[in-house]
Amino acid sequence: MAWLDAANTTRDRAEETALRLLKLAEETGEVMNAYTGLTGHNPRKGVTHERADVAAELCDVILTAAVVLHEFSDDPAGTLDAHVRGVTERMRAGADERP
């Protein structure tokens, strides 16, 4: 993260955090653009993307989220691990409740 922070030394921390969150929203929009291109739902453009394009954009979302997670956690890997474990437990509990 140091290289990214060093490249943005002209911004204060709050502005940099806001811009990183906006980048996450931008990347999410690119996922939807790729999906629209995959499904051909824009009649003016037709099919313009492949599944691999959607997958690549999803990877960008994951990476961007990982970067900005550093702004909100002193232990991003631990925070993610704990969250994944919590979601997994809820999923298992929900599966156990189904008939």
How would you describe what is shown here?
The chain is mainly alpha-helical. It has one domain. It is 75% helix and 0% strand. The chain contains four helices and no strands. It has helices at 2-7, 13-39, 51-69, 76-97. The longest helix has 27 residues, at 13-39. The chain is flat. The termini are far apart.
Task: Provide the fold topology.
Layout lengths: L1 H6 L5 H27 L11 H19 L6 H22 L2
Helix pairs in contact: 2-3
Structural class: mainly alpha
Strand content: under 5%
Radius of gyration: 18 Å
On the 0-100 scale, what is the average pLDDT?
91
- Range of helix content: over 70%
> What number of structural domains do the residues give?
1
Number of helices: 4
| Largest sheet data | none
Element-by-element helix/strand order: HHHH
Identify low-pLDDT runs: none
Distance between the termini: 47 Å
| Secondary structure: number of strands | 0
Overall shape: it is flat
